Amino acid sequence: MKLRAVSYAWRLFIIAGTTLLLILLPIQFNFEIYEDGSVKILTFIFLLFFLIDFVYSLKHYSKFHTHFLHRRHNYLRFFLIFDLLSLLPILFVFSNIDFSLFFLFKLFKVAFYFNEMKQIHVRYSDFIAIILVLYWMATAAHILSSIWLLLHHIDPALSNSENYITSLYWIVTTLTTVGFGDIIPVGNSQMIFTILVEIMGVGFYGFIIGKVVTILSNRDPLKIKYLENLDNLASLSRTRKISSDLQKRIRDYFEYVYTHKMSYDESEFLHSLPPSLEKEVSRFLKKEVLEKVSLFENAPEAFIDSIAVNLQPVVLTPNDILFHFGEIGKEMFFVLHGSLKVLDKDGNILSELKDGDYFGEIALIKNQPRIATVQAIEYCDLYSLNKNAFDSIVFRFPEIAEKINNKINLLESKNKLS
Q1: What end-to-end distance do the CA atoms of the chain give, in Å?
Q2: At 354, which helix (H) or strand (E)?
């Protein structure tokens, strides 16, 4: 863990150092405001750190790490050459600042590190993507502003900061396709550069808008699904004239699923994983219900894994009947949230089921019809376990089967007494 933290801090340091030089070197190149050579010294220091970073990366990504194969391939195939080019200023940094601008190749390594951060910190990938968009916008604007200053020449009537801000203003208005026309390019070099910036601006502007829209639209897929369901409900209501009461119940159901962040893609996602990961993730996702159910107390880990992989989410709205008396039982159920009532064949309440209860196992074990009707009192989140999975799991864990049989015998003895 400490090694990972150091590695992460090192990446941030390289990104910060590259950004600092990115700001200082083009400014010094245009204005030469640091006559004491402090920028050259600072550049040389950071270039030494870049050399260390190159050696570290070459050693790290040259090794065969199965969990780094994709990043290893990307670095050795593409980013290695840019790392080398960014180190060229070490040979010339004290003789000519022009060569210091080779460090800009380090921006490719910064992009590589940012991409690694997105892959590692999946939960914050959208946030990192937004930061990336802003970072590259600022980077492009600063570099292009420095080039425009070089081509347009510095106005001696203005201060250094005013010259830079004026140049930055022109670049931003041109890139964003606003173009007020108050600053006009003069000469072939300026006009060619303006054409290039305008072409870049069209693509850049479209890319930024598309990227932001993609980030925002993918940020909450459950909300997108929720809105799609409402649209489908509206279309169905118009064409099939669904009653207002039924519309409200459907809408309330969609609202409940969305507000409780329930996803129907859980099973599909889990099945895309290898068996070992599928078991681990299933156990984590269903930890809450597994901890509540008394049947699972002190159960072997292998049993918990087998149960977790085969549990399927079920949502009930108020007054929904899960199954009727006399139906053939094909599933047993575990209550995650909510309450249900157990009714006899005449509709009399026998008991209530709460969080952590499980039921429906009698019909599965004895291959007989349901001995009661179960109806939701409120919104309920359940997990179901089908008969095939149940039989397979119980067969491998006889001690669990004994627990269930004891419960069944207790229920049957109560029914005889009543």
Answers
A1: 61
A2: none
Q: Is the dihedral of CA 116, 120, 126, 131 positive or negative?
A: negative
Q: What is the per-residue pLDDT across 110-163, written as a single tens digit (0 to 9) for each?
A: 888 887 777 777 667 777 777 888 888 899 899 999 999 988 888 888 898 899
pLDDT in tens, 18-77: 898 888 888 888 887 776 678 778 878 888 888 888 888 777 766 544 445 556 666 666
d(CA 90, CA 148): 27
DSSP H/E element including 305: helix 301-310
Query: Quick one: DSSP state of residue 327?
Result: P
28's enclosing H/E stretch is helix 2-31
Any residues with CB less than 8 A from the CB of 334 and at least 6 apart, and which?
289, 293, 311, 357, 358, 382, 383, 384, 385
Contact between residue 401 and residue 300 where contact means Cβ atoms under 8 Å apart: no
The rounded Cα 367 to chain-centroid distance in angstroms is 44
How far apart (Å, rounded) are the C-alpha atoms in residues 179 and 142?
Answer: 18
Q: What is the DSSP letter of 321?
A: E
Nearest Cα to Cα of residue 101 among 12, 196, 200, 28: 28
**Which residues, at least 6 apart from 236, have a Cβ–Cβ distance to it below 8 Å?**
242
